[in-house]
Design brief:
Layout lengths: L12 E7 L13 H15 L3 E7 L3 E7 L3 H23 L11 E5 L3 H12 L20 H6 L3 E6 L1 H9 L10 E6 L12 H26 L6 H5 L18 E2 L3 H26 L22
Parallel strand pairs: 4-7
Antiparallel strand pairs: 1-3, 1-4, 2-3, 5-6
Helix pairs in contact: 1-2
Length: 305
């Protein structure tokens, strides 16, 4: 099945997802992993100033809620993130080869407040909704819940492997600590709440997290189950795969109403049409094929997409 063209209208909110190869637990929590993950995000944000709203990394996938300027900025940001996560997770777990099963998936979220809050809540639920911990804040790996609840800064570290390589070429050894630079990840409310004060936003996050905790506790009571727990999570084999995995086809857009969904479908159809018309002009030798705004012009020798 061909991949969809990357279509992100200007100033759109997107939910980004990337999954490890075969669902292996190669992103599992461990000592210092949350700081490294946040440092990679923060370093990428410094290079490609994307607006981030939420993040979480479970053992075999991660989600981001972000507002990129366009599809190309998001692609550059994600290339940096996924490349460096692959290096760091591979180094930790002795994994050689691709870490992620395919290119990241980015789904546009409409400007409707309900749609945006629903996706923020979905990310906040991670850790609890899978039956791993009782509350999202208890997840021992990277998760925005704790910082959004308290309003405290999100700190991480960027370990310069380039500096370590250069030192090794000089016959020196640079430890991870010596090659590390502290970073602070910038998080901001989703667009629908951008006009709120920090205190009001934090109170709303607390309310959402308490609701998630109540729903989680009720589900465990109803099903006579208990959360897996932090100790068991930390003891996972990073090369193991989940016993089962529920995967549904990804929607083209996250919308709260049929009207907005149809409008987005129409925009996407027009974008695809304009893109392939430009491809035809490019293949015919045009010096100015006029790709639609935000499109990736393919190399002439490759199939578009």
């Amino acid at each position: 099945m061909a991949r969809r063209l990357r279509f992100i209208p200007e100033n759109s909110l997107v939910e980004v997802t990337a999954r490890t190869v075969q669902g292996r637990f190669l992103l599992k929590p461990g000592p210092g992993w949350a700081e490294v993950f946040v440092g990679i995000l923060a370093r990428a944000q410094e290079l490609y100033p994307i607006r981030l709203h939420a993040f979480v990394a479970l053992s075999n996938h991660f989600h981001l809620l972000a507002s990129p300027d366009d599809a190309q900025q998001l692609a550059a940001f994600m290339r940096h993130v996924m490349t460096n996560l692959s290096k760091e997770a591979g180094r930790r777990h002795g994994w050689h080869g691709p870490l992620f099963e395919r290119r990241y998936q980015a789904i546009v979220v409409t400007g409707e407040a309900y749609a945006q809050v629903e996706r923020l809540t979905y990310i906040l639920r991670h850790g609890a909704k899978e039956g791993l911990v009782a509350r999202p804040e208890e997840w021992p790996g990277p998760h925005c819940a704790r910082a959004l609840r308290t309003g405290e800064p999100v700190h991480g570290v960027w370990i310069s492997r380039t500096a370590q390589w250069a030192a090794a070429n000089r016959g020196q050894r640079l430890s991870d600590e010596e090659a590390s630079t502290p970073y602070e990840l910038q998080l901001e409310p989703p667009p629908c709440w951008a006009h709120w004060s920090p205190d009001r936003y934090r109170r709303q996050i607390v309310e959402l997290l308490e609701q998630i905790a109540r729903e989680t506790a009720e589900r465990h009571r109803r099903e006579a189950t208990t959360p897996l727990g932090v100790a068991a999570i930390l003891a996972q084999d990073p090369h193991a795969t989940p016993s089962s995995s529920k995967r549904a086809p990804a929607p083209l857009v996250h919308a709260a109403s049929r009207k907005m969904r149809r409008e987005f479908y129409a925009m996407y159809a027009a974008f695809v049409g304009a893109f392939y018309e430009a491809v035809e002009r490019l293949q015919a030798g045009s010096d100015n094929p006029k790709f639609p705004a935000g499109a990736f012009a393919p190399p002439l020798q490759l199939a578009p997409g």
